[in-house]
Design brief:
Shape: globular
Number of domains: 1
Distance between the termini: 33 Å
Strand order of the largest sheet: 2-1-3-4
Number of strands: 4
Order of helices and strands: EEHHHHHEHHHEHHH
Oligomer: single chain
Strand content: 5-15%
């Protein structure tokens, strides 16, 4: 599966990394995720797979259930306990770093990335920045994943209270989130590190497009004049303003809330 990534500087050395929203891919993944325990058991028992594949299927099933429960909280009447839990969840989710959201979007199905970036930037710099994000994410999310796993047993102590075990659900979510970001960082690192020898082929008579096609490179760098023009809106000294962010999100089909997290972190 091909994924389109959008990379651009927000202000100075702080850059934004995002993946274009693809509703069709999301619907396709949801359709292949079992919806009931019976379906999950049939998928696991009818077609024996390696342990890691079954573990991923189980995690996808749990994630799907958590998403449905979250939608239920969102629709709860105002003032109810569920509505208050939803508000608490929003405050907690606001603390999730935008780089984690980006890495989580690089799923295991992604086999090729097309990277759109402002035409004024150097292509090697863009790819180097992507590799840096992947390397740093690999280190950080591996550490926090094992840390979250070690905290899970302690959250069972809250189950004796006559209230929802919020610490357990939050730590479970963070464990799964760090695991997704870790898998995404490893996947992205493999994608943008392949065909590294093509960067040394500038002296060849072939064009870069011909080199990419001949080697089947899993990454394609796409300088964008349109993105360059959108970034010029507003005062360059203060970074990209919110109007430019909105236009970029509409043009490149990005999640505005995720991009604003990069903007707010300036």
């Amino acid at each position: 599966m091909k994924a389109r990534l959008v990379v651009f500087p927000i202000k100075g050395r702080k850059w934004c990394f995002a993946r274009s929203v693809d509703p069709a891919a999301a619907d396709s993944q949801a359709a292949h995720t079992p919806s009931t325990l019976r379906d999950l058991w049939n998928r696991i028992s009818s077609n024996p797979k390696p342990l890691n594949a079954n573990a991923e299927l189980l995690l996808d099933f749990a994630s799907n259930k958590m998403n449905k429960a979250w939608v239920g909280l969102e629709k709860a009447p105002e003032g109810t306990l569920k509505n208050k839990l939803y508000g608490l969840g929003l405050r907690l989710l606001a603390r999730v770093k935008p780089s984690e959201i980006f890495l989580k979007s690089i799923s295991k199905e992604v086999s090729k990335v097309h990277v759109a970036y402002p035409s004024s930037l150097n292509a090697r710099l863009v790819r180097r920045r992507l590799r840096h994000v992947a390397l740093r994410g690999n280190f950080i999310h591996k550490k926090y994943f094992y840390g979250s796993v070690s905290l899970l047993p302690f959250t069972f102590a809250f189950s004796v209270l006559p209230l929802p075990n919020i610490p357990f659900f939050w730590i479970s979510f963070r464990t799964y989130s760090h695991w997704q970001a870790l898998q995404g960082s490893e996947r992205l690192l493999r994608l943008v590190s392949d065909c590294i020898e093509t960067q040394k082929s500038d002296a060849s008579n072939k064009s870069k497009d011909e080199i990419h096609k001949s080697l089947g490179c899993p990454w394609v760098l796409e300088p964008s004049e349109e993105l360059e023009k959108l970034l010029c809106i507003g005062d360059a000294n203060d970074g990209v303003n919110k109007n430019a962010v909105s236009d970029i999100c509409k043009t490149f089909h990005l999640n505005k809330n995720d991009i604003l997290k990069f903007w707010d972190s300036m």
